[in-house]
Every structure is written in C-alpha cells, then in structure tokens.
Amino acid sequence: MAAAVTTGVIHLTDRTPDVSGADMVAALVPPPQFDGATFETYRADDAYPSQQAAKEKLIAFSGGGAAAPVRRGLFSKAPKIEPTKPGVYLDGGFGVGKTHLLASIYHAMPARRKYFGSFIEYTALVGALGYQKAVELFRGADLLCIDEFELDDPGDTMVMTRLLGELVPGGTRLAATSNTPPNALGEGRFAAQDFLREINAMSASFETLRIDGVDFRQRALDGHAVVLDDEAYTVAIADAAASGLVSDDAFGDLVAHLARVHPSRYIRLIDGLATIGLRDVVTLEDQSAALRLVAFVDRAYDAQVPIRATGVALDRVFGEDMLGGGYRKKYLRAISRLNALTHS
C-alpha cells in the first residue's frame, strides 16, 4: 500500500470521502483542540460571574464536587432537596467557552460509555444507521455531549427529541451547548409552533445554564479576517506545502462541491490538511450554500486548520440579509471562527 501523501498541494474538490457508521461512532470524541480541556483550564471572566457559576455547577454535575454536609440539631428539619434534571444545557453567545466546558464534562465524568459530537454528527449517524439501531447503540450510555444543538429543520427536531426521550429513562446523562435556549430552538427558521410539544419535551430534560460574556477570539484579534493578494497567496501556499499537505481551491468551486458531500463527511474533506487555501472569495447570497459553509468552517475550526484566502474578506462572506435572519447566530459564530483561522 502506498504511503499517504503528507506534503504538497491537493484540491478539496477532488475529494469525495466515504464515512461508515463505525467511523462516525469512533469519531464521537472531543475534537483535538479540546483533548486536554479541563475545568481547571477554563478561565472564567471575572466581568461575567455567570461563567464561574456555570463552571461550579458543571463540576458538581460531572461528579467532581458536592455540597458539604450540613450539621443539624436533633429536631431540625432536613433541607428540601431540589430534584436534578438529567441534562445541562449551556446557553450563551459564541466564543464564551461553552465547548471547552462541554469537553471538560466529558473528560471529568467517570463514565464507562460516553460520547461527544456535534448536533450534525448525531443526526448524520441516525441517518446512516437508522433510528432503531442508533437507539440500540446509545441505550445504556452514561453520557451524551451534544455541541451546537441547533435545529435547522423539523426532521432534526423530531429525531433528536425522540432519541433523547428514549435514552433518558435508562439513566443517560445529557450535556449540550447552543446559542439558543431550548424552548426557542427553531425560532425564525421553521414553524416551531407545529413542533412545540417535541421541543418542550426536550427542554424538560435540561437545566439551562446561561453563560454571558464576549467572544474570546475577538478579544485576541484586531480587525478583520486576513486577505492576501494573489502573489502573497501563492507564496503562502507554496511555503505551507513544503512541510505539510495544503488544499488550493477556487471558493466558488468549493462551495459547489460542498453541496455534493454530506456535512457529516466534511471532517474527512480536510483530513490531513495543514492549511486550507481559498481563492477569489465572494459574498454568498444563497442560504443553503451559506449553511453548508458554516458546517465546513465548524469542522475546520475543530481541527484548527489555518485558512489563507484571496478576494472578499471571509468575515464578510455572508450577505446582510442572512445576518438579519433566523440563522444570524450561526453566521456570526462562523465569522468569528473564520477570522481566527485566517490569523492562525
């Protein structure tokens, strides 16, 4: 068997990755950048007390802490113990460390069977295995961590709420992140009122923890996404290709290619890459293409693959109409991540 290519230039448009159900299951672990995430390495911002408060609650949820016993007199009443919900739901803006905290739960919880994946990964796995086989796979799991719980269509709502509804009675604990409170999922995107019962059923499984703050990526950066001219781009790609595997694609070609690859396979599109090169970036006006790009950016950010680009700055890749619509938070998160990756 020929050795895998580790240096040089490839085109993402030449890749048509295939991912099996077994591969999807094996990938349900925190992304590499959060391999070592712990509660100790989460730096709560003193200006936003909700961050430290959420951290302390999550340590207890993970089994890493408990309230100290209280001494009581012989005839004193025991304090009322509030029932705990099987799940925690981290609601907050992008860049406040929700995924870091989610990965910390995963690493801290002494669980025999635990899974960590994005919302897209779970729904794709259900699609690959079939609903009943997915239920059998996850039944009895100690913990499911679900990153970026965002419902983009009614089908996803039904699948995930019913899946979680079957797992919780068996003792499965849940931890999820989102930019939207669970009772507002789907708002502005589809007829959420038609699925209110399913959404409320899911919401009842979670204790919502609000995490306020400002985007840590923007705190660390100054200005917009980096744009290269053609000459600088050519040099950057050549330099990166000398020591690693680099992709080089026209932006329009990549966007068209993403429509032919299921989002669950985007992680395989960038497998082994040290740098992503995008030529002639333009502002997108098609919502479906924009949402596919968001999913691609999420995978590139998880893998921490730098991006080099020409054309329109990548923080201006989504049209104004999109930024004012129901997917606004998703686009803003993607912009934040694109900005960071062009500075990497």
UniProtKB/TrEMBL annotation:
Alphabetic keyword roster: ATP-binding, Cell cycle, Cell division, Nucleotide-binding
An annotated GO cellular component: cytoplasm
InterPro entries the record matches: ATPase_AFG1-like, P-loop_NTPase
Cleaved signal peptide residues: none
GO MF annotation list: ATP binding; ATP hydrolysis activity
GO biological process, alphabetically ordered: cell division
Keyword flag Cell wall biogenesis/degradation: no
NCBIfam families membership: ZapE (NF040713)
PANTHER family: AFG1-LIKE ATPASE, ATPASE N2B
Protein name (record): AFG1-like ATPase
Organism whose genome encodes this protein: Microbacterium ginsengisoli
